[in-house]
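From the shared-data thread, chain only:
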Amino acid sequence: PGGAYYFVENDSDVSTAFGDAMGGLLSVTAQSAVLKLSVPPPAAAMGVKIRDIHHDEKVDRGDGSYTVSLGYFYAEESRDVVFDVDLSNVPSDAPVPHVHVSLFYMDILKRKTTQAGPVECSIARPDSAQVAPVDLHVESQWLRVCTVREMEAADLEAQQNQLGLA
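Structure, as tokens:
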């Protein structure tokens, strides 16, 4: 896994292949990135629980927390990790911390292990029928997760020769 392959047909292609490879190496800013998501104890007491992390590299730590291996990050890159959480069962107009998120990684430029966060993810639970506005970025990521699930289910049906269902 990882790495790259370059087919070099003639001598003049060597410099292009080498330049592409070096450009990829030089733009890596973080490696071995691991995201940790956990519920703070006061939130857990109010019924908050991480239900699922929608990522292939998630690990349930068994204590209500999860880690997600993200690998390498390149300069100016960002990633989204979608997760489900059971919300607080205590109404509150003020935002209540539900999840703490930290990122651990090897900083390539400083050559040392670094931690970003924890960042507190807070959610208000007003005791009313008011509906919060939809965050279009979150909605698009959720639709991406649902689409991948449907494609995987269709692929499984097709592999079992259930083409009509697929």
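The mean pLDDT is 87.
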